[in-house]
Design brief:
41% helix, UROD/MetE-like_sf, Cobalamin-independent methionine synthase MetE N-terminal domain-containing protein, eight-stranded parallel β-sheet, TIM Barrel, alpha/beta
Length: 326
């Protein structure tokens, strides 16, 4: 079994970048300048981690307002609505308003900007890069479907998202050597019928495409049917902080790669290295047939203070190091 570490989602914006975003929003800086500063700042973040840099990194989501935006600007047939609460958290996301047939734009500007930053990071830091995007269940769950759209149910919208948004997105990232990080915390909210449709539609993707997907579920457990039908091909991410029982869903199905969210990204309280490593040893023992285990935070770090986020990633690295000696 190979142990790795991974950054899930975003990282808190540095003061320098947050200040530059305000400058950009006032029309005092160009988009090219914004991208340049975003790359410069996330590079500085990763350089500060030095020898404790995760094996899998993201673009930090510095050009994102939330997991849905601005990606939904790259989807035709969707407009940006009002603010809605993101699950049981004290932050909000802009709601996708579906007004017509959806599909990924032929020139997805915001996605290409993020991909450009990710590829530069991969080149400079010699790390695997993942780009976080909303999963099908989460996109459909948060969307407002209007009477003008051709979709009458969440299931129809979700299936269309997989076919005409997700598939071309995978192809785009795969061609450049990036991994698609699908954040899909709404997956456990689906009905049994919707879950079957979700799995069947995802299975229609080729094996090579599924291998480039890391499907991350947090806040709740992973439905067993997802682990049974998809776990052998894609990397499935569990939240062992909020839903420690979710490990039971992956005991039995043949798995090659799995992510364990073992560091709590929803609190400033720092974990202790040895108790944390001891706590997850039983989970690792139960995954004896798995080829690769990624250790990560349970969800995104972007809403924690920057200094705490650094400390959380350092704890994660030290937990991995202790487990390698075990």
């Amino acid at each position: 079994m190979r142990l790795s570490t991974a950054l899930t989602g975003g990282f808190p914006r540095t003061r320098r970048f947050a200040s530059f975003v305000r400058k950009y929003e006032k029309g005092e800086a160009s988009r090219e300048e914004l991208k340049r500063v975003a790359l410069e700042q996330i590079l500085k973040v990763y350089e500060r981690l030095a020898g404790r840099l995760p094996d899998y990194i993201t673009d930090g989501m510095y050009l994102c307002d939330d997991i849905l935006n601005p990606f939904i600007r790259d989807i035709t047939g969707v407009e940006i609505g009002g603010l809605v609460r993101f699950y049981e958290n004290n932050f909000f996301v802009r709601q996708p308003v579906v007004v017509g047939d959806i599909r990924l734009s032929e020139s997805p500007t915001h996605t290409l900007e993020r991909l450009e930053i990710a590829l530069r990071l991969k080149e400079k830091l010699n790390r695997e890069v993942r780009l976080p995007f909303p999963g099908p269940a989460t996109f459909a769950d948060f969307s407002l479907i209007t009477n003008n759209s051709p979709y009458s149910t969440r299931r129809e919208l979700m299936e269309s998202y997989i076919e005409v948004v997700l598939l071309p997105l995978i192809k785009l990232l795969k061609a450049e050597g990036a991994i698609l990080e699908l954040e899909d915390p709404s997956l456990p909210r689906l009905s049994n019928e919707e879950l079957r449709a979700y799995v069947e539609k995802m299975q229609s993707l080729s094996k090579s495409e599924l291998l480039r997907i890391h499907l991350i579920v947090y806040f709740n457990g992973v439905p067993k049917v997802v682990a049974e039908r998809l776990g052998e091909v894609l990397t499935l991410g569990l939240d062992l902080v909020e839903a420690p029982q979710s490990i039971s869903a992956v005991l039995g199905p043949p798995l090659k790669s799995i992510q364990l969210g073992v560091i709590n990204a929803r609190t400033t309280l720092l974990e202790e290295v040895k108790p944390t490593s001891d706590r997850i040893k039983s989970a690792i023992r139960s995954l004896a047939g798995v080829e690769r285990v990624l250790l990560s935070t349970n969800t995104t770090l972007e809403f924690l203070p920057e200094r705490i986020a650094f400390k959380k990633l350092k704890v994660l690295h030290d937990v991995k190091h202790l487990l390698e000696e075990w």
